[in-house]
Structures are given as structure tokens and as C-alpha cells.
Amino acid sequence: MPEHPPSVLGLAHRRSSVSIIRVSLFKFVGLLTGVFFLAGYLILYLAHDLDRNEEIESAFYTRKAVQGLEKSISATVKDYAFWGDAYKHLHARVDTDWAYVRQNVGPTLYTDYGFQGIFVVNATDQTAYAVIDGQLTSDDACGWLKQALPDILLKARAGAEAETPTTLFINIGGRPALVGAAAITPGTDPTVTPDDKPPSVLIFVDILEDDRLETLGKDYGVDELRIATAAELQGRSVLALGKNGVAGSLHWEPPKPSERLLGLGLPLIGIAALLVCLMAWAILRRTTASAQALDASYDSLQRSQSALAISEARFRDVAEASTDWIWEIDRQGRFTYLSERFECVSGLSRHDWLGAPMDQLLCTELGTVTQWLCIPNRRPDISVQCRYVDPKGQPRITRLSARAMADKGFRGTATDVTEEVESRRRIEFLSQHDSLTGLPNRTRLREFLDGKLKTQPTAERPLVMLSLDLDRFKPVNDLLGHAAGDAVLSEISRRLANRVRHGDLVARIGGDEFVLILTDLKGQDEVEALCQRLIESIERPIQVGEQEVFVSASIGIAMAPTDATEATELLRYADIALYEAKSGGRNTWRFYAGDMNSKIVERRRLESDLRFAIKHGELRLHFQPRFRIADGKMVGAEALVRWQHPERGLIPPDTFIPIAEETGLILALSNWVLETALRYASSWPDQLFVSVNLSPTEFKRGSLVERVQRALHQSGIEPGRVELEITESVMLEDPQGALEIMRTLKRLGIRIAMDDFGTGYSSLSYLRTFPFDGLKIDRSFLSRLGATDDDRSVIEAIVGLGHALSLTVTAEGIETQEHLSLLRSVLCDEGQGYFLSRPLDTDGFSALVRVTEGAALTVKP
Ligand code: C2E
Ligand code: CA
Ligand code: CA
User: Fold this and answer.
1) Phi then psi for 451, rounded to 5 degrees?
2) What does the alpha-carbon distance between residue 77 and residue 249 come to, in Å, rounded to a whole number?
3) In the prediction, which pLDDT does 654 show?
4) All residues at 6 or more sequence positions from 364 whose CB lies less than 8 Å from its CB, including other chains
5) For ligand 1, mutation pick of 619, 626, 640, 837 (most atoms within 8 Å of CB)
6) Which helix (H) or strand (E) element contains residue 34?
7) Residues with CB under 6 A from ligand 1
8) Is 323-432 assigned to CATH 3.30.930.10?
9) Which is the closest atom of ligand 1 to the Cα of 814?
10) What band does 545 get if pLDDT is binned at 50, 70 and 90?
11) Which residues of 592-627 are buried (b: 16+ CB within 10 A; e: fewer)?
12) pTM of this prediction?
């Protein structure tokens, strides 16, 4: 996998702006909340602290107030007690008039100072003077002060010397009361002589009424000073009066600055927090929206960046993985970029070529590359083939495609197609040439021919086509093997090619078929001279291994424009002429003539007629008797097929058998012959056999054995009375297959004879190897007889050979008495011929059988 560029990785791990903004906003809000909480806490703390301070302060002032109260009562009581007049009028004796009426120590103390109780306790601790709520009474101080009284008295008297009054908080009727007491002394009054009695004690009682407490508090800046309730005793702002608070406790409301502070600060903080929250929310909304937009654009940027990165990577991979190299040139046609592949593919150095002109490296078939690039309206999808030379000096071909760049330069790819072009050239050559001989094949021939015909040949300078077919080539192949056949074909090809001029064409279009196209021949004479030379050159012996092989050729000639101006027609006409040359005895040539075509046409018609004939019973069988030469007795007959044509009359087999063989009709025809012949023969006397001709093609296709079996079965004829005549060519084509079939046929019990012996290769080995019962000497031996004595000795030799191989030797074509005599003299076994009997139709043959039945046929004189 290609490594990702860092930018891709960076992008891949990026958090979205929305989340970043959210996170930072949340952090910020968190921080703010912290700050608000801190501020709140600080305010609370401050408020609490302020409250504490106020509490402490108010407690201080409360204490101060109480102390002031104490001071004031002590001062007052001191003023009244340490006074000589008081000593005189309240201690020495109690002068109510002085004290109360004249208001020296009377109601004014109640009205001015608010002392509810004024007592004078004398030396014997009896209450001597009492003013309650400003009224003179006889109340006992003990009733008000209870058990505190002795203590008061004691402390007051103790302070007499130093004129120090005493104060004490007590509880009266559930309310605290301040008691100030002092021993009554003469003070500084020199007129008074103190007695030695314990001094009387002046006692002022100030019951702390609510309004009194309030005023007191106000004087000291203490709010709501009052008696503490039971509940308030537990809290703060309580001042216990008297020892252990026996007098009760005071309570006040210290000022609460916290309330103002909190009442103002907290809402402010709250509002600020709310505002901040709102702001944060608004900011969040806005920034989220813009962050989303940013994200979206970032995403698309990311996508396009990663797409870019991918396509970059793809480009890199493709550029380096492909066999192509990539180039760029500037407007001057100099290389500005060459991919790495350039070096691997071309073997040239990138370093050397960067900056060099492209035209210096590459050229097209039509000019320079830059010329090609600058063709107006050049289609960018069309490439051009360029050539260059690699460092080893080898020419290489590359296919260039190019696109214009914005800066007037070009870029594109270059594909090395050297091998492709080479192999295409090879394939083209192979597809147009015959692999064995290297000659052009049919395809090339057609091309060449079409090309030549386009140049419009004239009667003066015609285009000559020779269709050349080797004679006797097949046996070479069959007898000497394919390698030999190939060698012969190659040699002949060479010879043919050497006989034509440059610009002419020799093509091999089939096994042993060649076509020559010649353009420089004037007139028939020159053509004939060439054909002569060609045939002569082909006839020269060919050395194949140890052996010398002889072949010859037949040539058909057609010319353009005289015969035809179309390639197909020309070929066909040359073929027709060749056919004529072959049937004209081979080893020769024929010019195409108009009537040749009509012959061919007729042949075609025959072909279709024959098809019809087989189906519709137009075939006839004639039988030609075969006789034993020694005693002239008929031994059997050869079935010979004829065609009773409705218009042309009786057609001989030589005319239609080849057609039947070529068209495949031979199987149907032969089946009919076989079955009909055997059926007829089955009605003949037992000593007569029937002989049936087989076509070589029947050995190749069709189930010959089964067909014979069926015919035997259908006719019911004794197999020993059936003979099949086959020619050498059967063995030439597929000796092994033929041998097997023949052995099977032999097992059926039938006889096999070799027909037309002496016309083909007459290889004696066939006679030895294959299970023949007889051989038929071709009638050409007898027809030539008389000219020389050689033929007689040949016939004699064949008979001797046949006998040596235990074969029944039959002579064909006995036309004269001489023939017969000769055959008798060479001890030929059997004979057949017009002299003895022509082939007879079925009626004729039946008549003959009837006549000769039982008796030997007397040979005609
Ligand atoms: P072939 O097998 O050599 O048959 C003998 C041919 O020689 C016959 O010609 C016959 O009429 C002819 N002949 C017989 N005696 C004489 C004579 O004294 N002088 C001359 N000049 N000719 C004589 P036909 O019937 O025209 O047959 C020609 C060839 O056609 C046959 O040659 C045979 O090869 C083939 N043929 C005939 N019938 C059949 C058939 O049923 N099947 C196949 N496959 N071929 C057949
Ligand atoms: Ca025959
Ligand atoms: Ca024959």
C-alpha cells in the first residue's frame, strides 16, 4: 500500500470545529461558573465576616452600654451615698422629709434616672427607707433583692472606706435589674462626725424595662436591645447579666451588612452569570453555525484534499506500475518531466534527456513529433507511432498520446509497442504466408490480386493467372511420408519462385496447388513458354534423402481482362482450365476457354441430376461375364453401373462415378449397386459369383463392413460367391485402415480382388501384405499388346507373380482372339472382355445364364 501523505493523516484526525468550539466554550463557561462561584463564595464569606464583625462590635457596644449603665448607677449611688447630708439624714437618722419630701433622695431619682427602687438599709440591716416607683413605701428591700441583699450589703460596706460603690445584676420578677449600692458615708463633709455603727447602705434598683433597654441600645448604636427569649439564649448576640447570667440575658440585633451585600451582590452575580450564559449561548449558536459552515467547508476541503492525495497516489502508482512512461514538454518542445519508467522502458537516462528537445529523441513516420503535436484540430485521443533508438542501437517503436497544457506545453504517455508491432508484423506475415514454404497464402493472393486488378490490366499487358497443381504428388506423401512430401513442396516452391520475375507472385493455396500471378507477359506465346519452363523445372528429379522423386504439374491459365476482371472469376476460370489440363492427360497446360465453363455448368447439372437419379431409380446394372480361360466356362460376372438418364440416355459410369465420389453421393449409389447386384446374383446358379466395384472413398467413410453385411443378409447369397474389386489407391491412402477393413470383410467369407493392376504404382508389397484373392490386369496391357513383345512378358510376369501369391489372375479387355490365345498361353486364370461378352443388361445376362446353364460357354470364334 502506498504511504499516505502527511496531509491526509492530519486531516483524518482533525476534530470538527463545532466540537472544538463547543469544548472550548464549555471550558470557558465552566471557568466562568467557577469564577462566579468563587465570587459568590467570597461575597458570602465577606458577608459572614462582616456579620461576625458587626456581631463582635455590637456585643462590644452592648457590653459598653451595660458597663455605662453600671458606671452611671455607681456614679449616682456614689454621689448620693458619700454625701454628708445623706449620712446625716439617712444614716444617723432617717429623715423622710429631707429625703423624700424635699426630694434629696426621693421621687426624682425615679423620674430622672428611672430607678424603680430606692432603699436605705441601716446598720442592723433593716430597711430604713424605701421609695418604689417614686412612691415612699415601707417595703422591705429584702422583698426585692432577696438573697442578693446580704452580699450587696457586704460589698457596699466593704467599699465604704474607699468610697467605692458596688453594682450587681439581679433578677426581679423575671426581668434583669441593675442594683447599685454604696455605704452611706459623710464623704468630705467635715461637719459630720461618723459614728462607729456599721454604715447604712443606699441601694438603687434599676429594673431594665424594654423601652429603657431600647434607649440604652440606641445610645450605643445597638439595635433592638431587649431581654433575650428562651430561644434566643441558644443563639448569638446574647449578653448574660449577673453571675452566670442569673439576672437574665440581653439580646440585640446586630446589624447585618451581609444582607445588603448579599441582597445586592448575589443578584448582581446572578444577573452577570445569566448574562454570561446568554452570551455564551448566543456565541455558541453563532460560532456553531459558522463552525458548521467551517466544518462543511473543511470537510469538503478535506475531501478534496484526500481526493487529491488519492489521485496523486493513484497517479504515482499508475505512472510507475504501468509500462508506459509519462512525459511533459514545454512550449519549446523540451522535456520538463519524464517519469521513472522512462529509464526502465527506453534504457535512456532521464537526467540526460530532461531539458533536451523531444524531437531529438522521437520521430514519427510523417515528420517530427512537434509537427504532429501542432496539427490544427488534432484529436487528443489519437496517438502516433514514433521511433527512437535505444542505447544498444536497437530501433524501438513507441506509441505517443498527447494533450495540450494550459501553458502551451504538452504532456502525455508513451507506450512501448516494439514487440506488439513486431508480433503484429509477424502475425500479418504468418496470416498471409504459408508456414511450410514461406510462399504467400490464399489471403495474400487475394490481396495481391485485388490490388493488381485495380490497376486495370489491358489486353496488351494482361494479368496472367496460372493455377498449378502437382501430378503424382499424393503418392509421394503417402509412400515416403509427410516429411518427404514437405521437402518436395518446399523444393517446388523454390523452383517456382525462381522462375517468376520480381513483382509477380507465387502463392500456395492448397496441399499441392499453387497460383502464380504474372504481369509482365505479352501474348500467349510468352505464357506458354513460361508454362513450359515451369513444368520442366518441376519435372527435374527432387532428391529426398536417398530417394529421387519425380513429380509433374498441370497448369490452367486465365487472363484478365480477356477472361475475367474479377478475382473470384479469374481464380475459378484458372481452376477450370487446370481441370481441363488434368483431364487432358496431365503434365500440360490449358488456357481457359469459354466452353470450359459450360462443361463445368453441365457437370453441375449432372451432379444435381444424379442426386435425383439415385433416389428415383434411374440407375441400372449391367453385368459383364467373366470366363475361365482354360475351359471357357463362365464363372461369374462384374456388376457395372449405368445411368438411364431421361434426356441423355444411358450414361457410362466414368462420367458420373467421379461426380458421385466428389459429392458424397457415392455411398448411396454404391449401396444401391451392392444390394441390387447381390440380389440378382442370389438368383443365379450357385457356381456363378458376382463381382462388385468399390470406390476408394468408401473405405474412408461409411461403414463398409456393415453395408456389405446387410447386403449379404438381405440377398441371402452365399458370401463365397461375392467378390469386391478395389483399386490400389485404397491402400495408398490409409494402408492400416484398409488392411483392417479388408480382414474383416474376409472374415465375412467374401473374396477381394485388386482391380486395374498395373495402372498405379503396382506395388508388389500390397499384394503380399493385403489379403487379396485375385488381381485383375488392367485392360491397357492388352490394348497395347502387339506393338512390342515387352508387354507380353510383363503380362506373363504378372500372372507368374499372382500365382506365386496364390491369387486368381484375371485379364480385362479381351477384345480379340489373339488376346485370348496369349492369355491362355501364359496360363492366365480368368478373362473378361468385349470379345467374350460385352456388359449385358439384366435381361440379357439372365438369357445368357439360361442358355449356358450347365454347359460351358463356347468361346466365340
Ligand atoms: P472397370 O472396373 O475396369 O470395369 C471394366 C470396364 O471396362 C467397364 O467399363 C467395361 O464396360 C469395360 N470393358 C469390358 N471389356 C472391355 C473390352 O474388351 N474393351 C474395352 N475397351 N472396355 C471393356 P464401364 O462399365 O464403363 O466401367 C468403367 C469403370 O467404371 C469401371 O472400370 C469401374 O471402375 C467403374 N464402375 C463401373 N461400375 C461401378 C460401380 O458399380 N461402382 C464403382 N465404384 N465403380 C464402377
Ligand atoms: Ca472392375
Ligand atoms: Ca478394371
Assistant:
1) -60, -45
2) 24
3) 92
4) 371, 372, 384, 385, 386, 387, 400
5) 640
6) helix 17-81
7) 624, 639-641, 652-654, 657, 670, 673, 693-695, 755-756, 779, 812-815, 832-834, 839
8) no
9) 18
10) confident
11) beeebbeebeebeebeebbeebbeeebbebbbbbbb
12) 0.44
In whole angstroms, give the CA distance from residue 843 to residue 852. 14
- For residues 644-667, average pLDDT: 90
Distance CA 118, CA 203 (A): 6
Q: Using only C-alpha atoms, what is the Rg of the chain?
A: 78
Cell reading at 719: 458370401
- Residue 765 phi/psi, 5° resolution? -60, -35
Q: Which fold, 435-590? A: Alpha-Beta Plaits (3.30.70)
Ion ligand 3 residue ranges (Cβ < 5 Å)? 755-756, 812
3-state DSSP helix/strand/coil percent for the chain, to nearest 5?
A: 50, 20, 30
Strand-pairing partners, residue 516, are 466, 506
Residue 826, classed as helix, strand or coil, is: coil
Sequence-separated (6 or more) residues with CB below 8 Å from residue 822: 785, 792, 795
Expressed in angstroms and rounded, the spacing between residue 658 Cα and the centre of ligand 2 is 15
**Which secondary-structure segment (H or E) carries 642?**
strand 634-645
C-beta separation of 247 from 238 below 8 A: no
State in words which class domain 605-852 has: alpha beta
3-class DSSP state for residue 209? coil
Cα of 624 vs centre of ligand 1, distance in Å, is: 9
115 by DSSP, 3-state: which? coil
Q: How remote is the CA of residue 680 from the centroid of ligand 1, in Å?
A: 19
CA 292 from centroid of its chain's CA atoms: 36
CA distances from 295 to 159, 280, 299, 300 (A): 95, 20, 6, 8
Evaluate whether 323-432 and 435-590 have a shared fold: no
Averaged pLDDT for residues 34-48: 83
Q: What pLDDT digit, counting tens, does each position of 262-309 carry?
A: 888 778 888 888 887 788 788 778 877 877 777 777 777 778 888 888
3-state DSSP call for residue 416? strand
**Domain residue ranges in the chain:** 1-81+256-322, 82-207, 208-253, 323-432, 435-590, 605-852
Q: What gap in Å lies between CA 479 and CA 454, rounded to an integer?
A: 44
End-to-end Cα spacing for the chain: 108
Mode of pairing for the β-strands spanning 774-777 and 751-757 = parallel
Taking each helix axis from N to C end, the angle separating 704-715 and 666-681, rounded to the nearest 10 degrees, works out to 30
SS3 state of residue 607: helix
Quick one: pLDDT band at residue 13, thresholds 50, 70, 90? low
Query: How many Cβ atoms sit within 10 Å of the Cβ of residue 388?
Result: 18
Integer Cα distance of 581 and 514 in angstroms = 15
Kindly list the distances between the CA atom of residue 788 and the CA atoms of 601, 793, 810, in Å, as whole numbers in the listed order.
Answer: 42, 10, 21
Closest-CA residue, ligand 1 atom 3, reads: 756
Most confident of 88-102, 422-436, 602-616, 820-834: 820-834
Q: Which residue shows C-alpha cell 497544457?
A: 405
CB 836 within 8 A of CB 852: no
Are 414 and 398 spatial neighbours (Cβ–Cβ below 8 Å)?
yes
Q: Kindly give the distance from the C-alpha atom of residue 613 to the centroid of ligand 1, in angstroms, as a whole number.
A: 20
Residue 40 has a CB neighbour count (10 Å cut-off) of: 16
User: 82-207 has which fold?
Assistant: Beta-Lactamase (3.30.450)
477 CA from centroid of ligand 3 (Å): 25
The per-residue pLDDT of the chain, averaged, comes to 87
